[in-house]
Amino acid sequence: MSSAISPIVGSDTKTLDANRYATKKTIAQGLLDVALLTANASQLKYVLQVGKQHEFYTLMLSLIIVSIVLQAVLAIVCIILGSTLNINKEKDQDSADKANNASLIINVLIVIVNILINAFQIKADDDRS
């Protein structure tokens, strides 16, 4: 049994390969993760430059490091999802489902950590001298 979806449009039959869709989705998510990683690297640079003068130095440093580590773990899970697992093969479907659930949980954690980072971040123009 194939897991491809075949919608009938007029007289043409088109097939949607679910594995190809999942691979493209994983790549697109990876590109967004690169943007977030770049933002975290910039925040880390700022916090390290300001140093202990930053009101929440230790908290910010910890949160940014946790975010970067979670993003690295997510990247590994996405690589596994995008290159190793084929959801069209029945033997890979259980592993792919578990990896997909893990990526969702990691993404939620990353969002929560980055909300906290932004809540405690002091902008350069808000510095009080």
From TrEMBL:
Q: Which InterPro entries match?
A: Ninjurin (IPR007007)
Taxonomy of origin reads: Eukaryota, Metazoa, Ecdysozoa, Arthropoda, Hexapoda
Which controlled-vocabulary keywords does the entry list? Cell adhesion, Membrane, Transmembrane, Transmembrane helix
The reply to whether Cytoplasm figures as a keyword in the UniProt entry is no
So where does this one cross the membrane? 56-82, 102-120
Which GO BP terms sit in this record? cell adhesion; tissue regeneration
Question: Where can this protein be found?
Answer: Membrane
In the record, the note on similarity to other proteins reads: Belongs to the ninjurin family.
Give the record's GO CC terms.
membrane
Q: Which Pfam families match?
A: Ninjurin (PF04923)
Primary localisation category: membrane
Source organism per UniProt: Ignelater luminosus (Cucubano)
Q: What is this protein called?
A: Ninjurin-2
**Which superkingdom does the taxonomy of this entry point to?**
Eukaryota
Q: How does it sit in the membrane?
A: Multi-pass membrane protein
